[in-house]
Amino acid sequence: MTSTDAQALVAGVLRSPFAHARIRQIDTRKAEAIDGVRAIVSASDFPGGESFQQSESGHNGMAGLFRNVIAHKKVLYEGQPILAIAAEDEKTLQAALSAVDIEYAVLPHVIDVQKSMEPDAPLLHEELVTQGIKPVPSQPSNIAARVEASSGDVAEALANADVVVADEFTTEALYPGGIALPYCQVDLLGQDRFNVCTHRDVPDDQGSLIAAMLGMSKEDILFATGDGNSVSQSEKRTRRQNCSTAGQSVCLEPLALMLARKTQQSVFLSMSREDVLMATAAVPGSYISMRLGADRTGRLAAAEVVICMQAGAFPGGPVQQAVDAALASYQFPAFRVIAYDVVVNRPMVTHSQASGAIGVNFALESLLDELARKLSLCPLALRKMNAKQSNTLHDPGCRLAFQGIGASIEAAESHPHLLTKLEENQGRGVSSGAALDAQGNVSYCTHICDVEVDNETGQVEILRYTAIDTDIDGQAEDCDVQVAVTVGIGRALNEAYCFDENGKLKNASFRDYRLPLACDVPEITVVHSGDSQRCGSTSSMLPPLAAVANAIADATSARITSLPMSPPVVLAETQRQKWKRRLRR
Amino acid sequence: MTLLKRQFIVNGCTNEVEVSSHETVLYLLQQRLQRDDINGGCSRGDCGACTLLLNGEPVHACLVLAAELTCADVIETAGNMTLNTGNDRHIVSAYQNYAPGVCDFCRPGLLISTKALLSEMPTPTDERIREMIAGHLCRCTGYDQLVEAVNAAARAISEDAA
Fold first, then answer.
1. In this predicted complex, what is the ipTM?
2. What is the pLDDT of residue A474?
3. Same-domain status, B96 and B157
């Protein structure tokens, strides 16, 4: 992405090469001396940042958001911005970025959510005390918050259940964005008044936040969306969703504005693909432990769920979203959901596109499949039997009750996809999902997926995919569902951020972070279930993960509980199952 | 740094510029010649956004050095296709009608690849179309719309020829 204004200064960001380190000293004298360097900004240049900087813990989001824009005294993930430079041309900019001397004291880091919860884990925020526990803990930890929702006596219900299924699930952090690269161009409108043109729509609350960081009045910053004609309707909707929550997407604007303010000149700042993958908000990974109890007929009796969610480097992961959505589609007489918001040395996470519900939906829909298998029930019949009905009241202790999943399950039961015959090494999986979109609409869906598993390599091929979704007419909406399913299939089979032993991202390019290609997905059949009061396709992000896992289990008897289900993972699990079967002979 | 004088044709116009040895065709077209009908999303040939035709063959502009260009080289970018001449108009129109979800960041490269495919294979199978599209990453359509658009373009071109 380049500036259309040849007079604009070129800006760049110096990012942390370490996952966790104290910044002892920053020496910019050599960079400042380079001819053509016009301005250098660091955290101390932001007058409005002082109040945020006071809080070491970074709790409640504001401090975290500011420190995510530019590091102060400490870096908490590889790629965190430390300073920004504006120069007359790209060559000068690169020379200046190389000339900055920074002295670091490298600290032990923690990437894994479970390790981060250990008492001896390296502390990211020395003053972070877990919220939501009484009495308040006296010692700091990496657990920022504990959220719980419960109803009934879960222990007793599980003890009395005829069948109990349980497992542990892990999901990895994911890239939520698109192909276009983020950018920000700031132009002067007058004395200390600016026009900001970016790749995204900047919502009002974020505009206020950016102004506060700069110590400016919001009226002096006019936000315009760049390339208004160059994005599709679906992408515009995605942008709105991306920007509507928590302000996680704020990254370039404050830096470009501060550089423009210092130089009183237009500034263009963009990100490379490596920077985007390394340092922009991710869909959080999680560890989930889940137990379901049911009677002999398949009627669910109880659920016990523990969710440990990666919040990234700053507190504020979508744990409440996970708790709300965890069991909201099915009727559980007794349940207990506990979620932990855990900081790790990774970029902060996004709340958009049901990101908090992805992991827990994968776990629940996988276990429902196991339950159906144990009871020799049709997986769709089991789901329909337990779906919340329209007259179901909101569960006590749980803010959401999705009451419409039954319609999409019924539509799936009569879909001709289920009549297609499967061959050897092929399997069929179903999965449902419900989610709230950014506009507050609930959408429901049930997906059917057929796969073929290569016994020798573990390669999974998606043969057929049907998404029974909520009622929307028109091509663009079909497309939204197809996008959601394609993204979901990618997350199920390939996508994951991978870190090395030093906490550095190993796959910071699209060659190594493998998005699904056209040849990886079949034609996705979209069916509308006919319930016209609901709209949106956010829910379609959820079922593909479990639908693929359930289809693999159907084809191979291998239950895969960690994502992504890449060929080595599938191969190892199928071979383990074969070995177990051999022992039983 | 040594600069090399290079002459080449872009969309029918002759250009003469001095290029450095490390400069890519993408950088040359986007930054030096200020063309807005080509986008770069990865600089490594992963995303397909910068696809253009070099002497009729689709190439990733981010992987071709500008210093390799000669006066015999003819470059075509998607901007030329939107002039709506010949078969190009059918391809552009098919994308407008059948793939409205695709964004303008990826569309130029897709138009070029579609042109290359249909000139080599006027009636491609869905499988061949998906192979072609596999050179392009897309997060806006889920790919089905793109297959429909290429099929529609192929139909329109063949009807026009008949």
1. 0.90
2. 41
3. yes
Contact A232/B147, CB-based, under 8 Å? no
Contact B39 A1 (CB under 8 A): yes
Are B110 and B144 within one domain? Answer: yes
Query: How many CB pairs (< 8 A) connect A and B?
Result: 127
pLDDT tens figures, A432-451: 998 876 666 777 899 999 99
Structurally, how many domains does chain B consist of?
A: 2
- Cβ-defined contact of B34 to A6 (cutoff 8 Å): yes
CB distance B39–A233 less than 8 Å? Answer: no
Cβ distance A12 to A269 under 8 Å?
A: yes
Domains and CATH numbers, chain A: 9-107+177-279 (3.90.1170.50)
Task: Give the tens place of pLDDT for each residue, A113-164.
Answer: 999 999 999 999 998 999 999 899 999 999 999 999 999 999 999 999 999 9
Question: Are both B9 and B60 inside the same structural domain?
Answer: yes
- Domain housing B25: 3-80
Q: What is the pLDDT of residues A353-382, one digit of tens each?
A: 688 899 999 999 999 999 999 999 999 999
Q: Which residue of B has its CA nearest to A508?
A: B42
H helix intervals, A494-566: 543-556
Residues of A in contact with B49 (CB under 8 A): 179
* Interatomic CA distance for residues A274 and A507, integer angstroms: 9
Predicted model pTM: 0.91
A264: left (phi over 0), alpha (psi -120 to 50) or beta: left
Residue ending a domain, choose from B80, B103, B119: B80
